[in-house]
Amino acid sequence: MGCDTPGVRLAVRAIPEHARVLDAACGLGIDALWLAERGRRVTATDASSGMVAEARRRLAASDAPGVDVRRCKWDDLGSEFPPDSFDAVLCVGSSIAHAPHLLRVLSAFGSVLVSGGLLILDSRDWEATTSAQPVVEVEPVIVEREGRRCRRSYEWAQPEPSGPVELRATLEFLGDDGSVSESMTWTLHQHAFTRQDLRAALERAGFRSIALDRIPGDDRYTATARRR
């Protein structure tokens, strides 16, 4: 959950109540729900039809105000929504690393923001991750949702210095005695970039007031920028 990290939670404070917010990588809809419960008017998109279906299910079962959930790729945002559709765009959970063309995606975000609209991203520190590989992380907190308890772990490696980063994500579902009753593992490919790369792409995409902040205790850094 992106809004559960200190940097994103702090950045979201700058979004006024009743502002129009696009969650541009909504996943299961957890962040969209969190924002809607706090008075923002939320539209949620994801490229995965499975994620969209699950987000719709979760949001329909909640008491939050209506959230419009749509299947939409980042490259298609400009054709799905007219200009000036949103006061803020969120792309959190380090989701931006799924974009092979960083500038193109940032430009798409800017195309649906109002002038002066706020963009909030977060990202792993890829320079640290790729310089000390493989990196293995086991989340210290057991996640419990809908009666199931789960432990999550991640392993990153970059086989080729200039190639994509491979992420192996593992979910271990725990029984009542704490033993593993079921596990799932899958591999994703992500595209690493430096902070300098991100800042340069934001500037080229027409953003200003760029800040890339790291908060102690946060495993990602948060980037905020305003559409010029």
What does this structure look like?
- 25% of the residues lie in helices and 36% in strands.
- With 228 residues, it is of the alpha/beta class.
- It has seven helices and twelve strands.
- It has a seven-stranded mixed beta sheet with strand order 3-2-1-4-5-12-11, with helices on both faces. Strands 6, 7, 8, 9 and 10 form a five-stranded antiparallel beta sheet that branches.
- The protein folds into two domains: 2-123 and 193-227, Vaccinia Virus protein VP39 (Rossmann fold), CATH 3.40.50.150; 127-190.
- The longest helix is centred in the first third of the chain and has 12 residues, at 49-60.
- The model has no long low-confidence stretch (mean pLDDT 89).
- It is globular and about 55 Å long.
Q: Which percent range describes the beta-strand content?
A: 35-45%
Which class of the largest domain in CATH terms? Alpha Beta
User: Rg from C-alpha positions?
Assistant: 18 Å
Which strands sit side by side, in order, in the main sheet? 3-2-1-4-5-12-11
Mean pLDDT: 89
What fold name stands as the CATH topology of the largest domain? Rossmann fold
Structural class: alpha/beta
**Count of domain modules:** 2
CATH architecture of the largest domain: 3-Layer(aba) Sandwich
CATH superfamily of the largest domain: Vaccinia Virus protein VP39
Number of helices: 7
Low-confidence stretches: none
> What overall geometry do the principal axes of the alpha carbons give?
globular
